[in-house]
Amino acid sequence: MNPVASINPKDAKLTMAHFYVAFISLFLGATAGLLQVLVRSGKLTLPAGITYYQVLTVHGVLLALVFTTFFIIGFIFATQSKTCGSYTDGERRWGWIGYWMMTIGVAITATFILLGESSVLYTMYAPMMAHPMHYIGLTLVVVGSWVCGFVVFHRHARWRKENRGQVTPLLSYMGVMTMIMWLVACLGLATTVLVQIIPWSLGLVPTIDVLISRTLFWYFGHPLVYFWLLPAYMAWYVVVPKVIGGKIFSDALARLSFVLFILFSIPVGFHHQLLEPGIDPFWKYLQVVLTFLVVIPSLMTAFALFATFEMRGRELGATGLLGWWKKMPWKDARFFAPFMGMLFFAAGGAGGLVNASHQLNQVVHNTIWVTGHFHLTVGSAVAMTFFGVAFWIVPSITGRKLTPKMNKLGLIQTWLWTIGMVFMSGAMHTAGLFGAPRRSAFSTYAGNEDTLAWIPYQIAQAVGGTFLFLGALLMVYIFINLAFYAPKGETEFPVGEVHDQAEKVPAVFENFKLWVAITFALVLFAYTIPFIDMIQNAPPGSPGYTNVIGRQ
Ligand code: HEM
Ligand SMILES: [Cu+2]
């Protein structure tokens, strides 16, 4: 083991184990993405009986669920070990138990997707029905992630006990908040999977209530996107300021924004169901209002980040409104990648306002616009931030050096992703406005003229997707180099300090019970009556539909 590693090498091993799964998933998921854009351009037909839905299931599950979750948990473990101090042997053992549960779960689910038994996409909407083992595998992933969550809670509580009265390390606090959000969100997923879907896929019950299942899914599905985003915010609030040589604008503001994200991202799942019959418009309206409240912490974040940039720029002598721009370390991949992610996030956020607006949603619902949207948010803002983190965290915790060559490749990687995403996402947004559907293979719809107009955009999408695929390959190459081949040595683990003039941190932020209680109160407020409605007016359930011959 390397003595210059920036965290306890045993903790580093646990984090790296998570990262291996994450980057293998990135590689396989990006390969699926390339196949999708090629199929949709009309230039490729999938060979050997592989179906478009099967490939799309691989893509969604591996990138949106596996890459993200494994990277996030690895990242939270490393940042907590760095800022609170290393885990005890007992804590670490539980970390490994969680890791193996998740990894075995992924292996089971991946097997059944590859066998063609589970082409139900990553949202696994009923009444599409997968093989029961698909759901059982995913259950293991979720339960494993909970085990990891409890390790994070335990380490944080131990720090508090050992440092009574002091403000907890910001990164550890943020890790705890992220895992709280994840646990509360997962209650919805666990309910539909354990109570409805698994018994139905096993044939124990003949039908499923689709509306309830989807509602429980989206109760989970929206906070899921914030589970992806909050770790990127951890990097933006705490790591990026240090990378540019500045200070965190305000610890209290960062904590407040995390609290608000929890409150406003759980009781809002209906904004994914605006066109769902069977939900009273009033409750959709209410959840849309709660959705728009998330603008507050988003703008707080944007303000804090750009304030940090400006303060640092002025320290370095910048003047005028945008003088700081020239003072930023553009040649540092640890800065450049997350910064481009932030820019993409601003665009993605604007599109999100469209999605969440009831009337505009009618135009874009289920079109490829939506896919364009979330490739800006999770596919760029989050993914590029994670790449930017990987550039330093991998060598830092394994006791290696981020060489100038890898830094340069990191800059090229960021450009590939940026160019690819501008093309792909731009084409998706535009074609979506013309009505091109998401989740569809290539079709000329019997020569219908309106649909022929989509084809140029689908070709642009394929060009962008090819750049992205190259970007993903380069990222995997950089990861392997940093993990196994980079020279031994020290790499900074950048943890920002708070600005001297920042406000003190009020103790109430540390009152997790209070935030969870308010969250549940909001959830009950937003969901109780609609659920009573759904149960009282339940339609007859649906049998399962599958593309597998011989299974019903
Ligand atoms: C090589 C890079 C990528 C390419 C070429 C790519 C391409 C695509 C395409 C063409 C679709 C839409 C297919 C359709 O609806 O018919 C899609 C869907 C999707 N992508 Fe990507 N993507 C890439 C990277 C990512 C990343 C990094 C993430 C997330 C971290 C991601 C998450 C998703 C998700 C969640 C879907 C929706 C799947 C579904 O509708 O079930 N993609 N991608
Ligand atoms: Cu949402």
Key traits:
single chain; 552 residues; mainly alpha; 17 helices; 71% helix; binds protoporphyrin IX containing FE; binds copper (II) ion
Summarize the structure.
By secondary structure, the chain is mostly helical. The chain has 17 helices and no strands.
Please provide a written account of the structure.
It is a single chain. With 552 residues, the chain is an all-alpha fold. Helix content is 71%, strand content 0%. The longest helix is centred in the middle third of the chain and has 34 residues. It binds protoporphyrin IX containing FE and copper (II) ion (CU).
Record the SSE blueprint:
Elements: H1 9-40, H2 52-84, H3 89-114, H4 132-162, H5 170-201, H6 210-243, H7 251-265, H8 281-292, H9 295-315, H10 324-327, H11 333-356, H12 358-364, H13 368-398, H14 404-433, H15 449-452, H16 455-485, H17 512-536
Helix pairs in contact: 1-2, 1-3, 1-16, 2-3, 2-4, 2-5, 2-13, 3-4, 4-5, 5-6, 5-7, 6-7, 6-9, 6-13, 7-9, 7-17, 11-13, 11-14, 13-14, 13-16, 14-16
The chain binds protoporphyrin IX containing FE and copper (II) ion.
Give the amount of beta strand, in percent: under 5%
Question: How confident overall, as mean pLDDT?
Answer: 92
Number of distinct beta strands: 0
Helix content, binned percent: over 70%
Structural class based on helices, strands and sheet pairing: mainly alpha
Number of helices: 17
Described by strand count, sense and barrel closure, the largest sheet is: none
CA radius of gyration is: 23 Å
Provide the succession of SSEs. Answer: HHHHHHHHHHHHHHHHH
| Bound ligand species | protoporphyrin IX containing FE, copper (II) ion
Low-confidence stretches: none
Anisotropy-based shape = globular
- End-to-end distance, in Å? 53 Å
| Oligomeric state as shown | single chain
